[in-house]
Amino acid sequence: AATGITRGVYVSSVVALGPVAEGEGSETAEYTGPFPSEYHRTKTLAHHMARGAQAEGLPLVVACPGYVYGPGDEGPPMDFVFDVLKHRLPGLSTRPTVFSYVHVDDVVAGLVAAGERGQAGAVYVLAGDAHDVNDVARRVAHLADTWVSPLRFPPFMVKLTGVLLDAVSRVTGARMPISRELADVGGSGERWAHSSRRAVAELGYSWRPLEEGLPETVADAQQRLGKRQA
What we know:
Helix content is 46%, strand content 14%. With 230 residues, it is α/β, with parallel strands linked by helices. The strands form 3 sheets. Strands 3, 5, 7 and 9 form a 4-stranded mixed beta sheet that branches. Helix 1 (38-55) links the parallel strand 1 (8-11) and strand 2. Helix 2 (76-85) crosses helix 8. The longest helix is centred in the last third of the chain and has 20 residues, at 210-229. The protein is globular. It starts with 7 loop residues before the first strand and ends with a helix. The relative contact order is 0.20.
């Protein structure tokens, strides 16, 4: 507002739109919790602030990426791939969470399009295809020619494990493959899937399927693990 820019793009997240019971949610959803993690809570609060700024006439476009993955990642999505490759997961949930997986390059292209052609006051979902966490773990293991634990635990056991490992992490300072938040996010059976139809129609947005984007992601993880071991 102070600089008088003609259009700004705020990068929100589909987590600010909330989970859906079935199918796909839309960019119009208004989510107020409950929040399975601090990330979900803070992204939702910021999303509401951005929407409020839009309502006051600020020339702002809001973009909501899905579960972003891709080579070079330093965050939780790549940590999950590392944990599968290093066999650090004792098991998976009997109620795996569903996410809209989207390659980072497709998100970047969508953000550029939002800046160039997005309508001020609009919200665009930049998501991909919906897959559950267990399916993705199996795909990662298959691409790496390795295995993933066949054990499956109910959500309450996954959460209990996360609580215990949180205590270990606080004492040792080491990152554990399961935490209370990760258990709530990835093993609760919720569906964080949202439609990108508006972005497709107005921005020309498109995304590659997981089977096209995941191989280079796994290859990058294997290369980085090899360098660490060397």
